[in-house]
Amino acid sequence: MLPAIINTVTMTVFSLVLAVPIGVFSAIYLAEYAKRGNPLVKVVRVTTETLAGIPSIVYGLFGYLIFVIACRFGLSMLSGALTLAIMILPTMMRTTEEALLSVPDSFREGSFGLGAGRLRTVFRVVLPSAVPGILSGIILSIGRIVGETAALIYTSGTVAGIPQDLMHSGRTLSIHMYALLSEGLYMEEAYATAVVLLVMVLFINMLSGLIAKRLSAKKG
Asked: pTM here?
């Protein structure tokens, strides 16, 4: 089970490293820089909402065709992380944009009135105020990554053990549990894996909530 835990943490961190910067900066552009009423912005928002509702197995097939076959990454941690990054990107974009739009315009007007430019206003005033909302999007993304099975079976594979690097296959906790249940011979181990998975998600949620409270306290 330990290799599966390590693989889960590795997959989560690498996927967030890829998706969070792209999602946050895309949302900043949509909320702060794009002109209101821009048709392109409407298309991006509709596309993002549509992609957020696509079943994970579709993302798995997409990752298999693009990363495993076309890019020749094979069944590897890299293929799985790239697929998960694409899968959680719509969630990161929508939650970050909503968090930025919830910041009162008076914050921006006050910053502009003191002589700050748009870039400084966004990164020194608006973005810190929107951190709790952005953190909520990260929590949702982590939960989806940790519990994902269908997309990873087609991209990262089901090899038990710790991969030597990102180009080798490895199974996460959810895939490990699925494999044990499919075999039907290690039911107790599968239940134990489910408990570990549940505890991990609860711990991540509690830690994220604590961080959000401290950030809100500092902002206040």
From this structure: 0.88
